[in-house]
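Dear Dr. K.,

Following up on our conversation at the group meeting, I've run the structure prediction for Thiol-disulfide oxidoreductase from Christiangramia fulva. I'm pasting the input sequence below exactly as I used it, so you can double-check it against your construct before we proceed with anything downstream. Let me know if the numbering doesn't match what you have in your notebook.
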Amino acid sequence: MKIFKNKWGDILLIIFILALIIPQTRKPIQIFVNKVISFAPSVNDEDEWEKIADYNWILQDINGRRVEFSDFKDEVVIVNFWATWCPPCLAEMPDFQKLYEDYGGKAKFFFVTNEQHETVLTFLRKKRYTLPTYKMLTKAPGPMDGRTLPTTYVLDKKGNIVVDKVGAANWNSDSFRKTLDKLLGQ
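The predicted structure tokens came back this morning:
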């Protein structure tokens, strides 16, 4: 066949396309690509900060306990909307785990999903993650919106949305850690 004669690039491209078509190989490739292209999230300009409408949000933790978001008013809060089937979400989970290990006692973390608790628990155990995950019992306060996955919001102690990031990011970067330290110090 003349089409493939001395055209190793074409062969590699076809193999890559086939790998993207096959579900067992597509997901790891997507996670890898998202991880490679993820950068530290940027902080919104202070004059663009939006305040959450209220803290009236009820969640359920992985153990089935009811959690009132209002209990975390006046604290630095990180809310991440995610799913176990979402490659960009999975790409940023290792960074979130490292961040949670270092800041879990200082800031409040909420990893919110609509998936069944058993599915999430199986995923967390398999990956050895200790991230606090929740299911929404009521709608999230505006303007927080988790319709696009992943979406992450970082709230300061006054309820201002300092960071609102749609898509994967490097949450364990030095620049984000400095932002978090600054927010915790206020």
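Two things stood out to me. The mean pLDDT is 90. Helices lie at 8-21, 23-37, 87-103, 117-127, 174-185.

Best regards,
J.T.
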